[in-house]
Amino acid sequence: MHRVATIAAIVDQHAEDAAFLWLRRRREIDGPILDEIDIGRIDQRLEANLEGLMAAGKAGWEGALARFADYPEPGELFVLGALALRWGDAGLVAVAIDGAASLGEAGWSSLSAAIASTPRESLRPLVAKWLDARDELRCCLGLYALWHHRVDPGPRLPDLASHSDARIRSRAVRLAGAIKRRDLLPAVLAGLDGKTPEERLTAALAACLLGEKRPAHQVIDEIVSTEAGLAEAAIEIRLLTTATKSGKDWLGKHLEQPGLRSVATASVGLFGDRAVMPWLIEKMREPDLVAAAGAALRDLFEIDFGETDLFVVDPAALGKDFAHLDDNSLPVADRVNAWWNGGRGGHDHRPFRSMRLLRLNALRAALATADTPLADWRATRHLPAWV
Q1: What is the pLDDT along the chain (387 residues), one digit of tens a residue?
Q2: pTM (predicted TM-score)
Q3: In the chain, what are the domain boundaries?
Q4: What are the backbone dihedrals phi and psi of residue 122, each rounded to the nearest 5 degrees, phi first?
């Protein structure tokens, strides 16, 4: 790291903007609002600010470190991690790791994102050391790197997939499913009996990716019934790995359960069957289901709904019964009804594949064949030129 002449206010602005842009990226990266071009534009701005900090040398690091001291938040930690990893300085990386430890799970998630944004060449000297570390969290960092860059560690993966630490074990199992390491199926199936529901759900997806749906479905069904916080993710896996007719029957039962009505309604778009539109429009008239119905609508059409007037950002615009909602994008039932009955239903719109759809398509492709690895849908974008 070098020392160069800098303007403190500009360095501080780079650190602030980089943290903000990453937080926005994290919020939208798997969502239904932005597509790869929109994310690409965020990435360009994020990279420009990180490059500005790196060009500032020592002043850039000190500025980012000072901001983290004042605002010990995930966005600021991402910036620290990204700079440390790109410089490849072991001392700086240790500072970032200590910062992640101070923030708990949110910190490790931020550092994972910093690893994802770092070129393989910069990570190569670190990953082997992380995987061999006695510190379980550093070992997890090595697995984050393998996951984000879809690297097969070869004969090292079996030991990691059967590790005594559940966090290491679960991340190794996730990687085994993504890169189609069928030789690790016993470890994956063992994960179905994991101690936590999160570990069991991770193993269930890995098992499905390796072609073992039946035992995975038993675990998924239990999670849907007992773990409200994981129900949405579990339902998604269940429907993506179930034949359409059977999937509709399965989901129909959960639509009748009060605790699952919302997440089940949000999932009806996964079938791609637009015959559900009249029913879905009626759900848009119910305050408890309007957000879920909007989510399902976005799954049914490859449309940028931001170019239409079908959604509003102010819930009060839907009426007093909706004013208490805190969602910032809700469908207007009457407008959607007119749009649908007018025969438009997807016509006269430019093709739009949201980041959520890219993720679902990657999952569908990997689940469809035994040898197709799970693509990194977050890293397949073409960064557009400024317009």
Answers
A1: 656 546 789 999 999 999 999 999 999 999 999 999 999 999 999 999 999 999 999 999 999 999 999 999 999 999 999 999 999 999 999 999 999 999 999 999 999 999 999 999 999 999 999 999 989 999 999 999 999 999 999 999 999 999 999 999 999 999 999 999 999 999 999 999 999 999 999 999 999 999 999 999 999 999 999 999 999 999 999 999 999 999 999 999 999 999 999 999 999 999 999 999 999 999 999 999 999 999 999 999 999 999 999 999 999 999 999 999 998 899 999 999 999 998 766 667 788 999 999 999 999 999 999 899 999 999 755 555 444
A2: 0.92
A3: 1-118, 256-372
A4: -75, -25
